[in-house]
Amino acid sequence: MSFRFFLLTIAPPLLGVGLGYLLGGRLAGLRSLRIRALWLVWVAAAVQFAQYSLGGVRHFVENVVGVPMLAVVFATVLGWLAVNLPRWPAAIRLTGLAIVLGAVLNGVVIAANGRMPYDPAAVAKAGGQPGSQTAKNEPAGAGTRLAWLGDTIPIPGLRKVASPGDVLISAGACAFVVLAMRRRLEPKGVNH
């Protein structure tokens, strides 16, 4: 498992669990939400894992099938949110909308450039080695469109950079767990 996969996929909900407990919530509060099609979240996580960890799968999907794996992840998560958002309380819907906005921002900058651009100065500030290009990232340059939506936020302690979309996705996922944990279970037999 890559560190970036952990940072974007697993760490925000885990942080949410910790904050949820600190704020008096309980995991049982998650049961008060009707969550449908949870399997879509697992599919998105599996595709995200494959994207970061299994180069052969990424090459096949992107070059043979012709679909960017990130588009599959975004579409799957957006589908899951579309099924669930209308049913959730307003505060939790806002966390879902933050995730959607973050995914859209990331998708727009990737679509505009073919890869997620990163700011070499931000990478240097974070303690990384700027200048390399991967199948997913490229250094921003004079011809980069919407560079400010790329990976421009240095995270020095982790030697990584994040995009504004990453921040919204992570914050939304964390806040979702916190708010859901703080919901109270209704006594059995109570229907609304």
Secondary-structure map:
Layout: H1 3-22, H2 39-53, H3 55-65, H4 69-84, H5 90-113, E1 116-118, H6 120-126, E2 137-139, E3 153-155, E4 160-162, H7 164-181
Parallel strand pairs: 1-2
Antiparallel strand pairs: 3-4
Explain what you see.
This protein has 192 residues and is mainly alpha-helical. It has a domain at 3-115 and 165-181. The protein has helices spanning 3-22, 39-53, 55-65, 69-84, 90-113, 120-126, 164-181; strands at 116-118, 137-139, 153-155, 160-162. A two-stranded parallel ribbon has the order 1-2. A hairpin with a 4-residue loop joins β3 and β4. α4 (69-84) runs antiparallel to α5 (90-113). The longest helix is centred in the middle third of the chain and has 24 residues, at 90-113. The protein is globular and about 50 Å long. The mean pLDDT is 85.
Low-pLDDT segments: none
Shape: globular
**Helicity range:** 55-70%
**Based on helices, strands and strand pairing, what is the structural class?**
mainly alpha
Spatial arrangement of strands, main beta sheet: 1-2
In angstroms, what separates the terminal alpha carbons? 43 Å
Percent range for β-strand residues: 5-15%
Order of helices and strands: HHHHHEHEEEH
Question: How many strands appear in the DSSP assignment?
Answer: 4
Alpha carbon gyration radius: 18 Å
Count of helical segments? 7
On the 0 to 100 scale, the average pLDDT is 85
Sheet having the most strands? 2 strands, parallel
